[in-house]
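FW: tagging you since you asked about this chain on Friday. Here's the raw sequence from the shared folder, copied in full. Didn't touch anything.
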Amino acid sequence: TGTLIVARDIAHAQIKKMIDDGKPMPEYFKNHPIYYAGPAKTPEGMPSGSFGPTTAGRMDSYVDLFQSLGGSLIMLAKGNRNRQVIDACKKYGGFYLGSIGGPAALLAAENIKSVEMVDFEDLGMEAIRKIRVVNMPAFILTDDKGNDFFDEYNR
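HL: got it, structure written out here
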């Protein structure tokens, strides 16, 4: 329950470009968990359309840099992460949480209470959004000690 920032591939690339250009990481990336997800069209009378998690691996290359700057310390998505992400979580105190990809419409109907555009509106579906959620299902896949569910499961 609380606020999540929704950002995917292109938004991550835009934030990295800002950092590379000497600009600070946006505060919203430091102050809230990051949900890798994509919105669908919002039905009339609903705060959101289907809003399911996307595969986390596409954002792996950004995690070490972002966490070193105090961002992306809690990430929510689906799928496993590479060793660099697991090591970054251990080094910077981050967590990667898993969400269930199949029932995206149910997540929107039951758990997402509001959606607000935050940044890069010109990116359309890739724009950064702030969502308010209640009882959003999530489970720890990688913790701040370097423990990883997928590593443990595959042993």
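FW: The chain has one domain: 2-153.
HL: agreed, and The chain is about 30% helix and 25% strand.
FW: great, closing this out.
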